[in-house]
Amino acid sequence: MPRSIAEIADAASRDEKVTRDEAVAVIQAIPRTCRGARSDEGHKIVKTLLEEGRLEDAQRADQAHRTMCGQDINAVIVKMPFDGEEYAINCPKCGLEISLRTPRFNLVEDEQPSAQ
How many Cβ atoms from other residues are within 10 Å of residue 37's Cβ? Predict the structure, then answer.
């Protein structure tokens, strides 16, 4: 019987080996979409709000001043090494540079893709 997402995640947290398909299932269980580019005006507003310590207002302004892309970023992540390293990728739809850390999985031998 296949393991549940929770069982796979628990095994991964203990650094136990998981299959590539199991790792992909865990990644895809968490929606990750591109938020799109922020306008220059939005960048200035968010920066000012953050400098004033107004985090919630900055979060709302950030969302309001973005051109929502919606591209599924998991589609990119599952093609990357599951090594827990930081990467800068470009959204395949809008081109926005996105900084992320891939999840780390101890994969069954020979299932780790090479770095792109």
Answer: 18
Sign of CA dihedral 44, 46, 47, 48: positive
**Which residue(s) pair with 109 in the sheet?**
none
Q: Write down the pTM of the prediction.
A: 0.76
Tokens of 86: 């930081």
72-92 pLDDT per residue, tens: 999 999 999 999 999 999 999
Reading the block at residue 88, the tokens are 């800068």
Report how far residue 20's alpha carbon sits from residue 112's, in angstroms, rounded to the nearest whole number. 8
How many secondary structure helices (H) and strands (E) does the chain include? Answer: 5, 4
